What we know:
By secondary structure, the chain is of the alpha+beta class. The chain contains 17 helices and 14 strands.
Amino acid sequence: MTVIEIDHSRTRSTQGQDKQGLNKQSPNKQSPNKPSLNKPRLNKAGAKGLARVVPQSVSGPMRRIKWAILVLTLSIYYVTPFLRWDRGPNAPGQAVLLDFAHGRLYAFFIEIWPQDLYLVTGLLILASVILILANAFAGRVWCGFACPQTVWTDLFLLVERLIEGDRRQRLKNMETPLNAMRVVQIGAKHAAWILISLATGGTLIFYFTDAPALVRALATGEASTTALTWIAVFAGTTYGLAGFAREQVCTFMCPWPRLQGAIWDPEAFTVNYRDYRGEQRMSAKKAVEVRARGERAGDCVDCGLCVNVCPIGIDIREGPNFACINCGLCVDACDGVMTRLGRPRGLIDYESWDNIERGRRDEARVSRLLRPKTVALTAITVGLAAGLAVLLATKSTGAIAVLHDRDPLAVTLSDGSVRNAYTVKLLNKAAVPRHYTLAIQGIDASMTIVGNDDGSPITVEADGSESLRVTLTMAVPKDANVVFIARDETGRTVLSASDRFVAR
Ligand code: SF4
Ligand code: SF4
């Protein structure tokens, strides 16, 4: 059950007064079109000079969604390296593998060679557009629900609460001298954090090598120093970021809040406070008296719970804040308070800033999910995804590259004919050997493959390449484009590359 803790250090009768002087703006005084995005303010722990925000636990729909996403994303992260995928005898059997040693990225049926890095670039662009689209719909919703920093911080906070108690107890602990019980609690918490960090760092390394083999090597003490070093580096990063840096990462290290000034959208459904409903703040008892006299009383009872549960330490009642990660925990907190007071939910809600301003003017709210920006971004997302899908589906399992000899470019033979020489490289990205036949188009010349006088098919081993020395001789020489064509034995893979024949 959620406990309403009155934070008297924050109680005040009017808006816009910040005792720490961090936030000078009241939503009512902000520009009617676009509010300034406020600096984060500190909650009670910060106000007491303590280094970190001490968020209180809360229950509600948003918290449940966040738990579900946490379980799902962590399960995917920890399990994926152990999934197997049969690619044939000559390829690794790990479903997702970043095989930097051989220059390959594997993701289930997808295999990316260095020549296919445009696909990775395309995927990164697609991910960026999806992030911008999500921002147009609901602000930093990725940050609040699925960002690894949020997920691991939530996990670390859960451990902290289970061992040291909820916010009130932890604040009390901070103000009391160390005793034996506290030393045990602190030791247990850090031991649990270190175990999670080691599991996280270890799992990340599993994506770069055969996971079961590395598990065996770790269990038998045969893991390489390189692997152990990287596990330590990633474990230390997890421990530092999720255990100590927490909201500092979301506020100061992540570039997303820096972009908020440019991409903040007043029509996006971000977490906002309905100040036209919540003000003037007063105690629940006084509000009942005021309403009994037929006068209007604000719904906010200034309990401070929305601030206490915030993992960033923000008071969302002061207006949109660039550091707000849209996690909705303050929505859960305030909805719980409103329910217990018998008032309508939604005093803090996922609501567009435009609708907050409409509410202030007593106008009906408008939901504009479909607007030029969201339609255009959705179209770009779908177009990019479709384009990438086509590129992946039609991706060749072979490649050809032609390099013209530069010195000399052309050799004139005694009979007056001219010879050009090339290096032709054939790549076989398939899991089975391929046999290619090479031909030319575009010029009337005779082709010779050095070491292959009988013109038999050229074998390229599975996941391998073959370099050929090729000469073209023209009896009646002239400058012209030439196309090299390689066909595999099935005839389905046809590779081609253009170059130039020069007469002199
Ligand atoms: S907005 Fe809601 S949770 Fe926040 S102080 Fe007011 S009543 Fe409490
Ligand atoms: S203000 Fe609310 S939505 Fe924003 S970070 Fe804090 S708890 Fe999450």
